[in-house]
Amino acid sequence: xxxxxxxxxxxxxxxxxxxxxxxxxxxxxxxxxxxxxxxxxxxxxxxxxxxxxxxxxxxxxxxxxxxxxxxxxxxxxxxxxxxxxxxxxxxxxxxxxxxxxxxxxxxxxxxxxxxxxxxxxxxxxxxxxxxxxxxxxxxxxxxxxxxxxxxxxxxxxxxxxxxxxxxxxxxxxxxxxxxxxxxxxxxxxxxxxxxxxxxxxxxxxxxxxxxxxxxxxxxxxxxxxxxxxxxxxxxxxxxxxxxxxxxxxxxxxxxxxxxxxxxxxxxxxxxxxxxxxxxxxxxxxxxxxxxxxxxxxxxxxxxxxxxxxxxxxxxxxxxxxxx
Length: 323
What we know:
Helix content: over 70%
């Protein structure tokens, strides 16, 4: 009797559960129609529109290798490298940059040591060349910031026109995000999207300043926050800010023109000893090899390198005028 009850229960359960499971696994007509509409919309979307889509998921991966990513997350240097790479817009990871730095250090050391049999010059060459990846990152970062600085006054003029036409500040930022080219458009687009998703204006502007730490943008952020606290005509404030940024940019270009000779002198005094040493080695290798085969020569090389670095630093400080 108990076996019959169990069989009846199992039969009823199968008869009820299987149709429900099938209906849950099989999409309904409305679900199929929604999926078809979504697929058709994605297929008809242009490539430019897909590129402008912002990924809202936070990606903190510093390397594609899992164990290296865990190690880098524990280092205090890794977030700084990650910030530099994001500001340079290179798409590298911090682990990749550190791996390239290691390769640029180890390869010259091995080549110079095997070729000349001198470890200290090989170590010096490795220490110099290991900064090439970081130098490239800083170069791309400075170029991107320069483009942002050139495009910021036009973006402010566009915001002034939108505000005078009756739009809000958030809508004016959205207009800048759509109309201005990168990197101004992309950075303002992120700021615009952060405000749309509930972030306060001050926090969004602070994030923008963290991504683009420039004095001109700091002036704009300060002007916006002061106007928000005290009131007033924001369009007029941004208009005067735009004129101020243009004057600062003109003055910086004028100073750069006047200090061109000093910067060129610094590069010549820094690179000529290295180039002259290489040429003299190819002309007379035995005479130049004395520098790394004798203790006095090694000391002279270290002293010459230190004085060259100090001289280049002093010249750079002289011609670097802060506006």
